[in-house]
Amino acid sequence: MGGLSPEREVSIVTGNSVLEALNRKGLTALPIYVDHNIGETLKSNPIDMAFLALHGTFGEDGCVQGLLEYFKIPYTASGVMGSALAYDKLKSKEILKFHGIPTADYEVLYKNQGISRTLDLPVVVKPTNQGSSLGVTIVKDENQWEPALETAFAYSEEVIVEKFIDGKLLAIGMNEMTPMPIIHIRPKSGFYDYEAKYTSGKTEYICPADIEEDEADRCRQVAIQVFQVLRGRGFPRVDVILDDEGIPQVLEMNTIPGMTPTSLLPMAAQQMGMKFDELVVEILKTAQLDYTE
Prior knowledge:
The chain has 3 domains: 8-77, Rossmann fold, CATH 3.40.50.20; 85-101 and 166-282, ATP-grasp fold, B domain (D-amino Acid Aminotransferase, Chain A, domain 1, 2-Layer Sandwich); 106-163, Dna Ligase, domain 1 (2-Layer Sandwich). The protein contains 10 helices and 9 strands. By secondary structure, it is α+β, with helices and mostly antiparallel strands. It has helices spanning 8-24, 38-44, 63-71, 80-87, 89-98, 145-153, 194-198, 213-229, 264-271, 276-284, and strands spanning 106-110, 123-127, 137-139, 158-163, 167-175, 178-187, 203-206, 237-243, 248-254.
């Protein structure tokens, strides 16, 4: 837990929630706070398997996964390649488009290489490699354009500009290849930003989502496709916007969903009759290595 990204504090909340659940289940678990000395920490704390509660850069992008492969410590969530692909929003978009999976039209801008835009407003501006909606802005007026770019470029050298899609924001947790109950996310501010995600009372969650059964079925099928093409593993979460035509437009796959008191994956599990502690153990059971030699 912890780590080196701007999501460190959220990661610690997730990590502590998981640690408490593992202890309640009678498992011997210890917290490992990730910093630049993680290699030495692992050497001095021999462990059988790792429950990854690391959000953001170094935690979800394949870096810590590669380290654990070297130490031969099975870990939860996606492997090295799957983590890297899902975390990079640009590579994810390219793969989704290649496979014909619905996702918003987009273009890429690079720092210090001009800021021209071809997409009409409104658009969403986001860094290619951040989570928790950090650096994301919905641009509806031209006077918001340059400040949005400045915000996104503060987090990344490349920025994605997506066509804004109006619709229902939905989250589909995955139990391996099996979709969990769909959650409809309704932020009271209209934008599911960092504050809306992590502040109690800022967002309304409806589970199961208030959508038609054929729409729910399309969402489940798309989530399975995304899981497959982005090399999902364990219990990731696929986020989509259900547009006005009932088509689920994919935003991303989150390989290490939050496990905080306001998190979505535990909410979906609860709808299935699975308590938080049981969910934690089920996730732990999926711990494995990419390389077994």
